[in-house]
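User: I'm preparing a small set of examples for a lab meeting where we compare how different chains pack in three dimensions. I only have the primary sequence for this one, and I'd like the structure in token form so I can line it up with the others. Please keep the answer compact; I'll paste it straight into my notes.
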Amino acid sequence: MNLRAWIYTAGQLDEALKCSEFEAVYVPLRLAEKAADRAEKIILLPPEYLADCEEKTEKELLRLKALGFDKALAHTSGHIELLSRNGFKVCGGNRLNCTNSESVRFFAGCGLTDIIVSPEITIKRMNSLDMAVPIGFLAYGYLPMMLTRRCPINDGKPCGKLRCGRQITDRKGNKLDVICSDNTVEILNSDVLMLSGRLGEFHASFAVLRFTTEKEISGIVRSYSLNEKPDIRKYTTGLYYRGVE
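Assistant: Understood. Below is the structure token output for the 245-residue chain.
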């Protein structure tokens, strides 16, 4: 199974581009120019929320397209129209919530070249999907539990600091990392999704390793490429094996 990286920081980008295991790397627009010499391997990540920045985002996409970037990810159906009209090959993100064959076929008909299915899908259902286009799934990472417009720490506009080091605490005492962009905030799960050693159970074209707060990623990549079982005590296999409760 092919591996892809989803990165947040410049350090992660440098490491990911050095890893021969990755067929593609999802990169935020703010970091893309650093990888202009590897543009064929990059899938651009526009902001998840476009309502207050669509014009600015479109200008930046066109600038990057002139540098050789030709693939970008659609977080929502609104992104599909934006990317398509500007000539990008459109990859589907997990927030499109593909959970059945009908949705896969629908988005394939919209011109998507591949799709990351919803992390709420079960492995049984995923393995029965009609692969009208290549299917991928999130196989590693501190996945977002919530995307908000206001920062829960300062109760105001996001600070734009992706790794400010601040956390909130849930009712069970778990520490949840808070990651800001310019116009949204992601609240991450306290447990890391870990499926190394189990990729052979999934019938998919690619698995996505999503890096957020990690300062070093090579050890994680090695575990997946060697199909090793997790060597950490606390992790989750997500909803793939138990479904939505």
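A couple of notes for your slides: Helices lie at 10-18, 29-32, 54-66, 77-85, 101-109, 123-126, 218-225. The first helix runs from residue 10 to 18.

User: Perfect, thanks.
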